Amino acid sequence: MGSARPSFIELAGALGGALDEWSAAVRQALAGQGRYQNWLARRLGTPPPRVSLWLRGREQVWLSGTALPGAGTTHGIVRELGLDGESARRLVRLADRIDHLQRQLEELRPRDWRKRVEEQLRGDVLPAAAAPEPAPTAGAAERSGAQASVPVAVDPVPGRWASRPRTTRLVAAATAAVAAAGIVAYLGSERPDDDPGAAGATSTPAAVRTRAQPGTDTGTSAGTGPGGSAPALEQPGPEKNTLGPDSRCGEPLPGPEAVVWRVCARVEAGRVSFAVKLTNQTDGATTARVRVRVQYVQAKVFHPCPMASDAQPVDVPAGKTVITDPGLCSVPREAVPFAYQGVGWVVPAHATGGSYELSPTAHVYPDRTLWKPDLL
């Protein structure tokens, strides 16, 4: 008797694992040569957000509807990086596996295979109410008043959908483990007053007012900004003074659509504030609609923003940059040392869950602020 054909759930788990391994291999190859994503994008003639998307592993299944990286894309990467030997063969084997798994999944569910794979990899079969708020980093102790003299911070490594399910049992176990660890956090269960897909919905609710920076747009109009020029492509690495003096934004993050985003924090004399910066790198007139939620971490404990606790839709016009209003996520600066980080989610307009990312850590002392990581 022949062996039983793998189930859709098993194939979906295998695809997620193959995408994770493929992305990790490409990141390792880039790092080994000191190359950046933008360099690879230029060499391949591919938009930088798409290259960034390729490096997100299984998340690219739901962050965008573009084609998954297969043999054609991989041969181009191998060529441009000059890979040979086992590193090249392994990358090509992974690409062939991605193509093969995708064909099998399409045969089983021709019309909606991608949506069904997304449900399996993201654990959307679980009720949203069962997913907890992001938990503090394991081992974090409660901080009491002014007793501590040195700020502490959460691990700045962003949360990922790290599980690699292969069977129904592993899918459920991995999803539960990730949720319990606080790596996966769901957006607010209440939908905004204006459904992102409804006709006549307002473009930017008051809860996520956006503020214009030089060369940016408020997100409420698709017209050109000052000077009529689009912003430059987002460069790798953190940003300095994006929100004003003594502020930092984290690494650029891809998706959804052509949006690239960063989580930011700023320290002022009397307050610490947090925001998300979003840039739509599309040419033309396509406005990207996404859902954004901002929180902050103080001494390893996650907190909702005082004036904007829920996720809300935000429009990002083509070629424009939008920054959520830091005034809506601002807290008083303490007289004793604390560590702070911004927390951000940016997901497709109709999504109800996703992975959070963190800003650089601000170690705030009464007389100074130390950022980690920071620019030289």
Secondary structure: elements and pairs:
Elements: H1 8-32, H2 37-44, H3 48-54, H4 60-63, H5 71-81, H6 85-108, H7 113-122, H8 168-181, E1 184-186, E2 210-211, E3 239-240, E4 247-249, E5 253-254, E6 259-267, E7 271-280, E8 288-298, E9 301-304, E10 312-316, E11 321-324, E12 330-332, E13 338-348, E14 353-355, E15 357-358, E16 361-364, E17 369-372
Antiparallel strand pairs: 1-14, 2-11, 3-4, 4-6, 5-6, 6-7, 7-11, 7-12, 8-9, 8-10, 8-13, 13-15, 13-16, 16-17
From the alpha carbons, calculate the radius of gyration and give it in angstroms. Answer: 21 Å
Let me know the average pLDDT: 74
Report the strand count.
17
Q: Structural class, judged by helices and strands?
A: alpha+beta
User: What percentage of amino acids are in beta strands?
Assistant: 15-25%
How do the SSEs run, as a string of H and E? HHHHHHHHEEEEEEEEEEEEEEEEE
Distance between the termini: 65 Å
What's the quaternary structure here?
Answer: single chain
Number of helices: 8
* Shape field: globular
Q: Can you summarize the main beta sheet?
A: 8 strands, antiparallel
Structure report:
- The protein is α+β, with helices and mostly antiparallel strands and 376 residues long.
- The protein is built from eight helices and 17 strands.
- Helix 1 packs antiparallel against helix 6 and helix 5 (71-81) packs antiparallel against helix 6 (85-108).
